[in-house]
Amino acid sequence: MVSENKKYPVLNNNGSVGTEEIPVLDYEDFSTEVVNLLQKKENHCVTYFAYHQNNGLKFIIGIANDVSHHIFVLSHFLLESKPQKLDSLTPKINALHIFEREIHENHGVDFPGHPWLKPVRFAHNRANKNLKVNDYPFYTIESDELHEVGVGPVHAGIIEPGHFRFICNGENVLHLEIQLGWQHRGVEQTMLEKQTLIQRNMVAESIAGDTTVGHSIAFARLMESLAGLGPKTQLEVERAVALELERIAVHTADISALCTDVAYNLGANIFGILRTLIINFTQSWCGNRLGKSMIRVGGTNYPFTNETRVRLLQTLAKYENQFVELAHLTYRLPSVENRFDDIGTITEQQALQIGAVGMVARMANVLRDIRATHPSPAFEKYNYSPVVLPKGDVFSRFLLRRKEIKQSIAWLREVMDNEDFLFPSEAPKTEITLKPLRLAISLEEGWRGEICHTALTDKDGKLACYKIKDPSMHNWKALELSLRNLEISDFPINNKSYNLSYCGFDL
Amino acid sequence: MIKEIKIIQHNGKQFIPDLTTAEVPYPFRGRPEISYENVDEKALQNSCPLAAISVKPVVINLAKCNFCGECALRFPEKVKFTNDHRLATNKIENLLVKEGETHKIELDQSVIEKKIKTAFGRSLKLRQVSAGGDNSCEFELNACGNANFDMGRYGIEFVASPRHADGVVVTGPISENMAEALKITWEAVPSPKLFILCGVDAISGGIFTDSKALNRSLLKNVKVDLYIPGNPPHPLTIINGLLSLIK
């Protein structure tokens, strides 16, 4: 399908298009189209990147329309011989800021007009290798009354590295800037260098360990799409079951962590052990508590059977009884409520401005949930109604998790009641042939939010580019904005209330 | 108050009474066992995405293995993953599992200095550094301290400052960007101190072994006191490994 003005192809989630069929627009045309599309509230950018092709850089942008359930793919080409300079679109569409920064860092393209053209993750294959991870250009304010607080990269606790720089006026935070990149392992490059399907699958499982299922589903569907393998409904349902279990497990752990931060020990401990119930179920299904080795291309080694169904229903019943009882108490406790209420607020306008996705969007009154707006076959068969909260504070993020757990359990029950797992799904493919010269986009709603994987093949059917976007790419900005005018001691609960991914961002 | 007591009662005691004898049920994949069955060795070798299998004789190197189970799925008569979660060791050679071998993986107690046992036997404080980790080993290290596993009962805890620590637990393949921070953290820990590699990524680089974004040069100058294999290691693997090192 193509757009009315024939300037870009229109895809569905997990769809693919011939790379030759994507019209290459000149930058002026490209900018106008992109800005026109992104000014509409129903559209948002899911991915925007550049990669080397022949004698220049090919730019690809994916824009998702949440009403028509389509993804628009626009393209532009910048010759090596031309000045590596393009007018920034960020002043018009703020949410593109991080993508332009990434293109600038990786390929050295300048974006005049970009207000904040700073390094993103100090990737090993960046354009300017002289710039080291310790040279990050932090924003500073000259004043005798202000002081700076620097934290990280190594933090107090078992947590991934990142550097946080606060500019404070007394106890109050005027500005927070977060520098990431410490976890950069070269995921996208490794994806291209590894040649076998199973190796690539393993790379996808390692993008973010707490979202193993989410990222590997996006990978598996992308490969299936590029190989022309149609979706198998029962397999898709099994994957979605694993996805929802991952969501329930991590949400429970996050509620536990937030209880820890307000010294509510009963909640911290019991929500903690409730998570164990869920991840131990995942282990009993596939042998790994995080679901590693569960998702494979074209099939599964661990089919969901009627016996698994019985055990899942038992686990859910046990979990739900205890969760509901404890949540009923925790969410009404004045000591918990007081600490979370009306703090670290993100407005709906801010969420739209930064292009927030997933939980961060939904807690600020923005409905962005791939399960409803770009559903995979499982969520087409069994509809999911997203939870949206209006306020955007820490309490909303705390509450959203409780409500999403409830919603996921209801969804899982519906599936268990209606799906008969009579015939085990087939074994995975060990080899597939990717179609040459194609682009495919796969979106999935991980527990953090929208995961987007994009891949392009060359004329021999080899991977020419593999692009990963974790929801944290958009959402880290929300944490920075949340902290403004709060006390620095409010940072831990704000940080935990988001629980964003370092490794998913750093890649 | 009554509500709280009821909740505690309804959840019951969920802690594992003895972590040293606790088992993880199948299909958990722990220590592999390799039979003498004749199979296409080339195909067996190729079935491993991480090049952890060598042949003549068939050996699985747990320093490279991420326990995906692909070899056992394709050659069930040759390779079987048992549910033995005791995988940690202080000698990298002990991570080589040869065909026919069924013995447990253990620590070589003779190379552990006596002062490690006397100083840390009842109190071990560790500093964790994630250096390119994918947050899965971190996830399980956190789980070690929860109410189920309660590693704190043995006096083992994670602390905020390297100055308060008796050792460093590294997760992740050690990214170039974290190499210096890791080195500084390690140097800030007072002696005697322990250096522990947790997870396949930390031990060998895992799937990222060939990535140019890594800098594993620190490992050339540091004696590793404990290797904890797994992707991620199960909390019981971690805790039992630490206990064998200090008890």
From TrEMBL, chain A:
UniProt domain NADH-quinone oxidoreductase subunit D: residue ranges: 275-418
Keyword set includes Cell division: no
Domain of life: Bacteria
An example Gene Ontology molecular-function term: oxidoreductase activity, acting on NAD(P)H
UniProt keywords, alphabetically: NAD, Oxidoreductase
Pfam families for this protein: Complex1_30kDa (PF00329), Complex1_49kDa (PF00346)
NADH:ubiquinone oxidoreductase 30kDa subunit domain location: 33-119
Protein name: NADH dehydrogenase subunit
Source species: Mariniphaga anaerophila
TrEMBL record, chain B:
Protein keywords: 4Fe-4S, Iron, Iron-sulfur, Metal-binding
Molecular functions (GO terms): 4 iron, 4 sulfur cluster binding; metal ion binding
NADH:ubiquinone oxidoreductase-like 20kDa subunit domain span: 135-244
UniProt cofactor(s): [4Fe-4S] cluster
One Pfam family cited in the UniProt record for this chain: Oxidored_q6
Keyword Amino-acid biosynthesis: no
SUPFAM superfamilies per the UniProt record, alphabetical: HydA/Nqo6-like
Family: Belongs to the complex I 20 kDa subunit family.
Protein name: NADH:ubiquinone oxidoreductase
